[in-house]
Each structure stands twice: as structure tokens, then as C-alpha cells.
Design brief:
The complex is a heterodimer of chains A (about 160) and B (about 500).
Chain A (H helix, E strand, L loop, with lengths): L2 H21 L4 H35 L5 H37 L1 H16 L4 H22 L11
Helix pairs in contact in A: 1-2, 3-4, 4-5
Chain B lengths: L2 H11 L2 H19 L5 H8 L8 H26 L8 H12 L3 H34 L4 H18 L4 H14 L3 E2 L6 E2 L13 H20 L19 H23 L5 H15 L11 H25 L5 H12 L13 H33 L3 H20 L2 H19 L5 H23 L6 H4 L1 H15 L3 H17 L1
Antiparallel strand pairs in B: 1-2
Helix pairs in contact in B: 1-14, 2-4, 2-14, 3-4, 3-9, 3-13, 4-5, 4-6, 4-12, 4-13, 4-14, 5-6, 5-12, 6-10, 6-12, 6-14, 7-8, 7-17, 7-19, 8-17, 9-15, 9-16, 10-11, 10-12, 11-12, 13-17, 15-16
Classes of the chains: A mainly alpha (about 160), B mainly alpha (about 500).
């Protein structure tokens, strides 16, 4: 069973219930459309869950014996797990990066993020990372800060 | 068609600053398209904040040219790396890569560029002719019909998008639901804001766009990175300029594929990928020697390339005439209009005609820019295709943060963008397309306002929708678009089939 699908279906039901309950407290005219949308999302989420469960049970019934692809998927599982860890590590690092901009400014935070993220990714050499990061931050600085006058702290405020 | 607006549009596009933006956008689009794993939608979402400070026409010209450039750019990595740069270039791989293996990479890229130019130009002209004509019809639409159009838009894009019909509709439904957050337009009641000032004006469509299309792409690239596979691109050793004899032979195929692209683009939910496969199959069907397909046939290369660029103009027809985006990329173009206070709907061609015609002309002119830029810079794109995935992913995240902050100068939007990004990644893993959600976010307010107005007209009765023949037809079509993708229609067909054989 695809757990991403199932969990997304459950999330959809939860989201619909949450919106439905919250909108019940608003005036009738303001709540009318959100209630309709919430009902539709709830029903579609239920259909999505039923579809997933049904298709998985059908697949299990038709599969008489384990095929070679099963063993392949088992052997590739640790790699997939590592890939997820890598992706979520970068996501967590990006959240910290966004938070740190207010403290140390955009350029220092970005440089630190690029450094740590590329260290986790381990795909580019030091020189490539350095030149690439300088070029990227230089372009952003030119476009967003110089031309567009972005109101974001550029340097540390302490 | 209002000729003064038509002329104003072309005058806007032909200003030096706009021409430079078109060339810049095309070049950027080509580079982005050439990088495997990056889509035109993502590039548009990231570039959108840059256009905020520009004139609406100038910003839209740049975005439209980027869209066109990326459609061609996808073929560069398809031909040189055997990896489509964008999903719409998947069919290009079949005959493009064998050609580059035969040492004809330049020829393949030249033909691809010329086919893209022809397809794009055809669709630009179709857009210029069809959108105003459709716009005249749409001007007769009131809120009742508009509500029906919005319902049809969301059901079509939901039922025709990737995955099952339930997943598409659910994605669209979530978009509609999220669009209700913020101050209610009729009563002024703050909904789902929990006293948070940043939510009073609703969830910014651009923030959702950047999160849904860019962060999942970056996370997927990170997953792919570091697997020890180095990108090896074939070299361009021959001339890029296609031969006149080749062009002459390919013209009927390019024309047919362009037409397929325009028609496919017209249908919301179907994009360049559907059109390119459709055109490829048709090219094979019409070919005298089918055995050459998949081994480096120029017809097999030019068909998908002409079709995927023709989708651009085709998808813009419902976007401009009805305010219903035909694809996620056109949804961003519509979002760009909304950022400048231009709301989607029939008044796009009247009240805001100057801006809309600027966009239409930009689509046409961008094709000429693509031809020039393509001939000059395609060789440079070889270097771009080799940029490691890990570096591209980190760069995307840096751009996402600065882009989402630029919308309202608010860190709240950055956080919201990350939340949408995580949700988009989840959707991707579950096989749910994010495009219907984006369309839902755009159409939500349109649907709600037109519904409330319709209810006022009809005195609170749903029968008001049945009294308008146009609305009734559109709503029946919407119902049919949902039913056609369910087993229900198949069961009904089977039953009727059995009954007719029994009676026969």
C-alpha cells in the first residue's frame, strides 16, 4: 500500500472536517461556500482512501508469488531511506536558514546554507561550490537587492 | 477586435526595454529547460516576484518568453543527454538522442528549434485570432455563466490531469478550500484567520505557487543527487542551421503537430507532454516508413517539438478569454496579472485590453527571439546541462526564500511557502498533480463571488443555473467531464450495449 497516498487521504478528511467545523461558526452567507468545498474535499478524500485500499487488495489477490521485483525493492530500500533522510535534512536546514536571515542577514545565512547543504549533498567539489555560490548570491544581490530594492536584512544586525 | 488596443499591444512589445526582456526571458527559459529536472512552471514561479516592480505588460512579456524558451530548452538535454529537460520533451528523446549518437546533434537541435519556432508562431497567431473572438462571446456572460465556467474549469483540469480522476479533483478541491481562507468578499467576515493579520487578505497565490512547484522539485533533485552518475552530454560537432530541403519535407508534419498542440492546449489540464506524445503518434501514423521512428527520424523529432511549443498559445486562449488557466504555467501568467490588480475574467480583453494584447504580441515576438537566441546560444546550453543536481537544488531553495519574501516583504510568507513546499512534495510522492490545486486557488474567489451574485439574482434558488441555457450546458459538460473518467460511464455503456444486442 502506498502510505503517502493513504496518509494524504486521511489528511484530506482531517482538513475537510477542520474547515467544516470552523466555518460552522461563521455567518451563513460567509460559510456557505467553504462548507460546500469542505464537504466535497471530505468525500473526495474518502473516495481516494477507498480507491487506494481497493487497488492494493486487488493487487495482493492477483499476486500469487513474490516476483523478482520484490527482492529488488527490498535491496533498494536502504538507498531510498538515505535519499529521504538527505532530502529532509536539507529541508530542515532550509527552515533554519530562513529563520537565521533575521539574525545574521541574507548573505551570511545564504553562504552558510549553501556550504552546509552542499556538504550534505556531496556532489560538487570545494572550488565549484565556492564559485557557484558567489555567482548565485551575486546575481540575487544584483537583481533583488540592487534593482528591486528588496527590504530584507542583508548583513548581521548585531 | 479593438484595433486601438491591438496596436497599443504591439507598440508596447516593440519598445526596446520589452524586447530586451523578451530576449532575456527566452534565454533564461532555454537554460532552465535544458537542465533536467527543472520545469517551465517552476522557473515561472521563481521569476514571478522579479516582475512585480515592472509594468504589467513588460513582466508578462518576460514570463511568456521564458515559457516558450523552456519548451524548446527541454529538447536540448533530451537530444544531448537522453534525459528530457522538461516533461513535454519526453517524446523528443526517442528520435533526438539516436540522432546525436550518429553525430548529428547539431542537425537535431536545429530541426527541434525550427519546429519549436513554427509551432509557437502558429499558436501565437491562433491566440491573436481566437481569444478576441471568444472574448466577444464571453462578454455576454453574467455571474451565473461565470460560475458555470469556473466549475467546468476545475472539473476538466481535475479529471484530465495526471493520476486518477479522484486525485485530480481532490487536488483542485483542496485548492478551492484553501482559497476561502481570509476575509469573505461579500460579508467581510474573516475566515480561518485565527486572529492572524497576515491571513486576513487570504493566502497569497504566488507564495503557494513557489512552494508547490519549486520546493518539491528541489527535494527530488536532492534525492537524485550523489548517486555517482556523472552527466555525459553528446558534443555538437555539426551545423545547427537546418537545411532548406529538410525544412520543406518536414513542413506538413510540423504544421499538423502545431495544430495538435493548439487544440490540446485549449483543453484545460492537458499540457505539452500530452500534446507531444499525441503529435509523435500522428507523425508515425502518417509516415511512409514507420520503421525509422525511434532510430533518429527527423519527423519523430520535429512533431513533439512543434506540438509542445504550440501548446503555449493554445493554453493561453481559455486563460485570456475565460480567465480559466489551461495549464499550471498559464495559471502563473494569470497570477502575474492578478499581482498587478487585473482579475481573471471576461474584462481581460476589454478593460485591461492593452496589457492582454501586449501578452499576446509577446507570445508571437518571443518565437522570433527564440529562433535567434536558439541559434546563437544552444551550444552554450551544453554546459548548463552538466550542472550537478545537488547544486541546482540548493540554488532553487535560496531563490525560493528570496522570491517568497519579495511578495509582501514578510517572513510569514517564507514559512507559508515552506509549508506548501512540503505539501507539494507529499502530493508528488502520492502521485497527485499540484496543477489542479493551483487552478483551484485562482478559481476559488471567482467561483465564490459569482455564486453569491447568482444567488442574489435567483433569490437564493439553485434553479437560477438551470434557467440560463449556457450555464446549464457548461454544468452538464462539467458533470460529464467527471463521469467520463469514472467506471460509471463504462458500466452504463456496457448495460446499454447488452440491452441493444438483446433487442437486436
Amino acid at each position: 500500500m502506498n502510505m503517502s497516498r493513504l496518509s494524504l487521504g486521511v489528511f484530506g478528511v482531517g482538513l475537510a472536517v477542520f474547515f467544516f467545523v470552523q466555518n460552522m461558526g461563521y455567518p451563513a452567507r460567509a460559510a456557505q461556500i467553504p462548507l460546500m468545498f469542505a464537504t466535497a474535499v471530505g468525500l473526495l478524500s474518502l473516495a481516494w482512501i477507498v480507491q487506494e485500499v481497493w487497488s492494493t487488495s486487488k493487487l495482493l489477490r492477483t499476486r500469487a508469488c513474490p516476483s523478482s521485483s520484490d527482492s529488488d525493492s527490498i535491496s533498494s530500500a536502504p538507498r531510498t531511506y538515505n535519499q529521504y533522510i538527505k532530502a529532509f535534512s536539507i529541508y530542515a536546514l532550509a527552515l533554519m536558514y530562513a529563520y537565521s536571515i533575521g539574525l545574521v542577514g541574507y548573505f551570511l545565512a545564504s553562504a552558510l546554507f549553501m556550504g552546509f547543504a552542499l556538504l550534505i549533498v556531496r556532489e560538487v567539489g570545494f572550488r565549484y561550490a565556492l564559485i557557484g555560490s558567489i555567482a548565485l548570491l551575486g546575481t540575487i544581490g544584483l537583481v533583488f537587492f540592487y534593482f528591486l530594492g528588496l527590504n530584507m536584512p542583508m548583513l548581521p544586525t548585531f | 477586435m479593438d484595433s486601438s488596443m491591438l496596436m497599443a499591444g504591439i507598440a508596447n512589445v516593440l519598445s526596446w526595454s520589452n524586447l530586451l526582456l523578451i530576449i532575456g526571458g527566452t534565454l533564461l527559459g532555454m537554460f532552465v529547460g535544458a537542465m533536467p529536472g527543472l520545469s517551465a512552471t517552476m522557473a515561472l514561479a521563481l521569476l514571478l516576484p522579479v516582475t512585480f516592480s515592472m509594468e504589467p505588460g513588460a513582466g508578462l512579456s518576460m514570463l511568456a518568453s521564458l515559457y516558450l524558451g523552456a519548451s524548446y530548452g527541454g529538447s536540448i538535454s533530451a537530444i544531448l543527454l537522453n534525459t528530457p529537460g522538461t516533461p513535454s520533451a519526453a517524446a523528443t528523446v526517442l528520435d533526438g538522442y539516436p540522432l546525436s549518437q550518429q553525430g548529428k546533434a547539431g542537425k537535431a537541435l536545429g530541426v527541434s528549434l525550427f519546429a519549436s519556432f513554427c509551432g509557437g508562431l502558429m499558436s501565437g497567431i491562433a491566440l491573436l485570432v481566437a481569444a478576441p473572438l471568444l472574448g466577444i462571446v464571453v462578454l455576454k456572460f453574467g455571474p451565473i455563466e461565470l460560475f458555470a465556467v469556473a466549475v467546468l474549469g476545475i472539473t476538466i483540469i481535475g479529471s484530465l490531469s495526471q493520476g486518477s480522476v479522484v486525485s485530480g479533483l481532490l487536488s483542485g478541491g483542496i485548492g478551492l478550500l484553501v482559497s476561502t481562507v481570509g476575509m469573505d468578499l461579500i460579508t467581510g467576515t474573516p475566515r480561518m484567520t485565527f486572529g492572524h493579520m497576515n491571513l486576513f487578505s487570504g493566502i497569497s497565490f504566488t507564495v503557494a505557487l513557489i512552494g508547490l512547484f519549486s520546493i518539491p522539485q528541489a527535494l527530488l533533485l536532492i534525492e537524485k543527487s550523489g548517486q555517482g552518475k556523472k552527466k555525459v552530454a553528446n558534443k555538437i560537432t555539426d551545423r545547427l542551421m537546418p537545411l532548406w530541403a529538410d525544412i520543406k519535407t518536414l513542413m506538413p508534419n510540423i504544421g499538423r503537430s502545431g495544430l495538435i498542440g493548439i487544440i490540446t492546449g485549449l483543453i484545460p489540464g492537458t499540457g505539452g507532454d500530452t500534446a507531444s506524445w499525441f503529435a509523435y503518434n500522428e507523425a508515425k501514423r502518417f509516415a511512409k516508413d514507420k520503421s525509422r521512428f525511434g532510430k533518429g527520424d527527423l519527423a519523430g523529432l520535429s512533431a513533439p517539438e512543434s506540438a509542445n511549443n504550440a501548446v503555449v498559445g493554445g493554453a493561453l486562449i481559455p486563460t485570456i478569454a475565460l480567465g480559466i488557466p489551461g495549464s499550471s504555467s498559464t495559471a502563473i501568467l494569470l497570477g502575474a496579472l492578478m499581482v498587478h490588480g487585473i482579475l481573471p475574467g471576461p474584462n481581460l480583453l476589454t478593460e485591461h485590453g492593452e496589457v492582454t494584447y501586449t501578452l499576446i504580441w509577446a507570445v508571437i515576438i518571443a518565437n522570433f527571439a527564440l529562433l535567434g537566441v536558439g541559434l546563437m546560444f544552444t551550444r552554450m546550453c551544453v554546459a548548463v546541462t552538466k550542472v550537478p543536481d545537488g547544486f541546482v537544488a540548493c540554488a532553487i531553495i535560496v531563490l525560493c526564500i528570496v522570491g517568497s519574501f519579495a511578495i509582501n516583504n514578510s517572513f510569514f510568507d517564507v514559512g507559508l511557502m515552506f509549508a506548501f513546499g512540503l505539501f507539494g512534495y507529499w502530493m508528488l510522492k502520492a502521485g497527485m498533480a499540484p496543477a489542479p490545486m493551483v487552478v483551484g486557488l485562482i478559481l476559488g474567489p471567482v467561483m465564490e463571488t459569482s455564486y453569491q451574485q447568482s444567488m442574489l439574482i435567483g433569490g437564493g434558488s439553485f434553479m437560477v443555473f438551470a434557467k440560463s441555457p449556457i450555464a446549464l450546458c457548461l454544468l452538464i459538460l462539467a458533470l460529464f467531464s467527471v463521469l467520463q473518467a469514472t467506471p460509471l460511464l463504462g458500466i452504463m455503456r456496457q448495460r446499454f450495449g447488452k440491452r441493444s444486442t438483446h433487442s437486436g
